[in-house]
Amino acid sequence: MRKATTDTLPAEGGLGNEPLLAVEDLHVEFHTRPGIVRAVNGVSYSLNPGETLAVLGESGSGKSVTAQAIMGILDMPPARVPKGEIRFRGTDLLKLSDEARTQVRGQRIAMIFQDALSALNPVFTVGWQISEMFRVHRGMNKRDSVKKAIELMDRVRIPAARQRVNDYPHQFSGGMRQRIMIAMSIALDPEVLIADEPTTALDVTVQAQIMELLAELQRESNMGMILITHDLGVVADVADKIAVMYGGRIVENAPVHDIYASPAHPYTKGLLESIPRVDLKGQDLYAIKGLPPNLLDMPTGCAFHPRCPYRQDNCVTDTPPLYEISGTRGSACHYWREVLDGDQG
Amino acid sequence: MGRYVVRRLIQAIPVLLGATLFIFAIVFALPGDPIAALAGEKRQDPNIVNILREQYHLNDPLLLQYWYYISGIFLRGDFGRTFAGVPVSELMAGKFQITLNLALTALVLEAVVGILLGLWAALRRGKAIDTIILASTLLLISVPPLVTGFVLQLWLGVWLKQQVGVEIFPIAGITAGFKAYLLPGFVLAGSSIAYLTRLTRTSLVETLRSDYIRTATAKGLSRRRVIGRHGLRNALIPLVTYLGADLGTLMGGAVITETIFNIPGIGLQIYQGVYLREQPIVVGIVTILVLVYILANLVVDLLYAVLDPRIRYE
Amino acid sequence: MSNDPQVGPVQTATAPPPLVTKPKRQDRPASLWSDALYDLRRRPMFIVSVALIAILLVMSLWPSLFASIDPFDPKTCELATARQGPSAGHIFGRDNLGCDVYARTIYGARNSIVIGITTMIVTAVIGGLLGLIAGTRGGAVDTVSSRITEIFFAIPWILGSLLITATFRDADLGIWIVVIALAVLSWPMTFRIMRAAVITARSQDFVVAARALGAGQGRIMFRHLLPNALAPVIVVSTINLGGFIAAEAALSFLGVGVQSPNISWGLMIADARNRFLEAPLPLFFPALFLSITVLAFIMLGDAVRDALDPKLR
């Protein structure tokens, strides 16, 4: 474990050449009874102000664990970060002292969770929970902080905010609850917002509204957003770039349009082909065969090889690095050229 | 909220009637004729016997007797009379207060010790202190009050007094006032302390695992505030329920403690009542305790609604 | 629920990430029991409690193996030696009547064990069966029986059994009146546990499937629901067993349980209490044995619970 900690908070203001947030070769492992689970194996990505990075992957791909490591809400133990950096405005968060880390959390990097019903405290009113941010971090008194809470509820378009400020989470609908969660997270104008499957628990119509709201809030405040999802459909309209994760690694990253136009990794390709499309009505829907990898017993070589239609012998033995395709694109496939060209598959 | 209160009140009625009828029926089955016992060895005038039997409704069928009894309690606060003619309510009045003092002492000890130990164990889960606390709860549950009572009398009562020369914990009676309740209160609370410790530990550990605790951490709150404000407030809810329901159990369990420590409460009284075959005393006291139990549970349910908004707005 | 190993701020080190497919182990009830047994054999608490209980069982079956003096023989008591301290032939000393405390303590195990185990069986069978029926049937049967158990919960345990034993003390039922009194007041506990477990099991897919396939009520009850609801009932019964033994001692102490000349630890404590400040040993030894016995069963119950349901810990 790192012992050298620092209390220096990340600077504010100009960024220079540094991205707003940069994850560098991050490793996270869990020490559990059946063995060590390597949930994240050398993930790197970066985020600039006003940018939206979509992190895509199925359950167990390590996408949420990476986000929780950024937030610093992993419980250690059982979790451990043996290697890697999370630089926020040039400062490695992993080297910060606990107190300094707490200063960053919520105020400068905020997070919203999948299920707002369980993520909101059932015994406090929503007004209390939102205004708590101002009372604790800004030293406001009760009246002013509640006023701020109402303003925020208005801003995330909760009807009759003033009347509902003293209601409890269970008295709201799923979509409204997620709006409250969002209001709470943007209360102190964070520079980075991490949204962990923000719409998965919601109805399809509500999903679109929430995504729209997030995009709008981002435009207003120029914050960087990490959108974690397993749903490619959600991503296209809001994301600037995409990182696809599989088995704890990033298997492909690219600007959003490139990925939709021509995926460079067989896994991404499979995901795209499994989206139902109106123009292909009547045809069988594609499904990636096989199961996600067992984290305790990862396949050798490329983790995707047991399920891959492009597999060659060296895929079983050699772990592919993230090959650079262009300045903004990368693919962790030995045969990314073939994938790009669309052979087989 | 109002509807909720009314519903709980209505639900309590059949429990109250059922429990008192059960007790009444058992005591009704007590063998031996109380009127004959009253007269002792002397021959009795059959006429007087009959008048007495009428007066105590002993010739009526069970359900009718029960009706006279239960309606007397609720309409006139009349718990009947002992066979010597003393109203049972009068007999119980002072003694009830003594047992209530004892049970409340036990309840306060239980709440303070149990919750603190439980929180300590939960926050140091898996550490040595957690194991020590869990092991002591096991001991506390296993050693019956019958044993702790006498052991503590000997150790904290007699031995300690010999060591320091002053009586710190009186071992019998209540003449010493408040401190006389400490030792019996602890003996009475014994296993309840252990159960509450375990419950507190489990409740806090479970609460700290929930999503909203993760949210609170993500809000940038200090660990102290996350646990103290967001965690405790939720973890406390089941503890209140347990504590409230335990008041009835403690008052019922007082019979052993009061016998060991010679405390003249209703526990000792019921023990004597059983020996003297004074059915009105026995039924009266158990009925009172059933009432206490039901009332305590009612209060707990209402408290629950105050503590947990999800129930309040059902 | 997402299946990520979403490890919140406080997570158990033991919770395996959901994606890990358990090697070998299947979700069959049989494996619950074999898993539990495997788990139990490595718990020191389980081994100690089983060893203690084994000794207690032998003690209650063949007390003469442990004590050469027959405490039921009045000739072994000498009033002149009352409350004498420990000596060569009488290692625990003598009681108020000059009888050997050691022999009486050894012989006292039998009533505790017999009453405790019988009460447990009666309670588990009656409460369990009624709970099984109420949980399976649901509807009015369930409502009525649940209301009835609430009535019993409202009666203070110790007072209720005191009432019953006192009422029938002249009926000459011996130690069985203690069993009856304790069982009458404690079956609702098993009932409640069994009912809750059955209701949980009832909505599980394999039961719904069995019903859809036309399995009869009896078959569903005993083949599907009972095996899946058994674990919590066994746990609670084992823990209650310790409670029954303590309750027997309490009733005997109050003079309404086991009656003299029969021997019981509670009775010995009651006999010794008047002079115990001057002669604590005749009270101390039965009290010690009583505590160890209760401890053994509660430890066993705790260990079984942890093995069968790690979540409860």
Structure notes:
The complex is a heterotrimer of chains A (345), B (314) and C (313). With 345 residues, chain A is α/β, with parallel strands linked by helices. Chain A has a domain at 262-345. Chain A has helices at 63-71, 98-104, 116-119, 126-138, 142-155, 161-164, 174-185, 204-221, 232-238, 256-261, 266-273, 313-317, 336-341; strands at residues 21-32, 35-47, 52-56, 79-88, 91-92, 109-112, 192-196, 224-229, 241-246, 249-255, 323-326, 329-331. In chain A, strand 7, helix 8 (204-221) and strand 8 form a beta-alpha-beta unit. Chain B has 314 residues and is an all-alpha fold. Chain B is flat. With 313 residues, chain C is an all-alpha fold. Chain C has ten helices and no strands. Chain C has helices spanning 29-41, 44-61, 101-137, 139-154, 157-167, 176-202, 205-212, 217-253, 265-273, 281-308. Chain C is elongated. Chains in contact: A-B, A-C, B-C.
Helix/strand layout:
The complex is a heterotrimer of chains A (345), B (314) and C (313).
Chain A: E1 21-32, E2 35-47, E3 52-56, H1 63-71, E4 79-88, E5 91-92, H2 98-104, E6 109-112, H3 116-119, H4 126-138, H5 142-155, H6 161-164, H7 174-185, E7 192-196, H8 204-221, E8 224-229, H9 232-238, E9 241-246, E10 249-255, H10 256-261, H11 266-273, H12 313-317, E11 323-326, E12 329-331, H13 336-341
Parallel strand pairs in A: 3-8, 3-9, 6-7, 7-8
Antiparallel strand pairs in A: 1-2, 1-4, 4-5, 9-10, 10-12, 11-12
Helix pairs in contact in A: 4-5, 4-7, 5-7, 7-8
Chain B: H1 2-28, H2 34-39, H3 46-55, H4 62-76, H5 88-123, H6 128-142, H7 145-164, H8 182-208, H9 211-218, H10 223-261, H11 266-276, H12 279-307, H13 309-312
Helix pairs in contact in B: 1-4, 1-12, 5-6, 5-8, 5-10, 5-12, 6-8, 7-8, 7-10, 8-10, 9-10, 10-11, 10-12, 11-12
Chain C: H1 29-41, H2 44-61, H3 101-137, H4 139-154, H5 157-167, H6 176-202, H7 205-212, H8 217-253, H9 265-273, H10 281-308
Helix pairs in contact in C: 1-10, 2-3, 2-10, 3-4, 3-6, 3-8, 3-10, 4-6, 5-6, 6-8, 7-8, 8-9, 8-10, 9-10
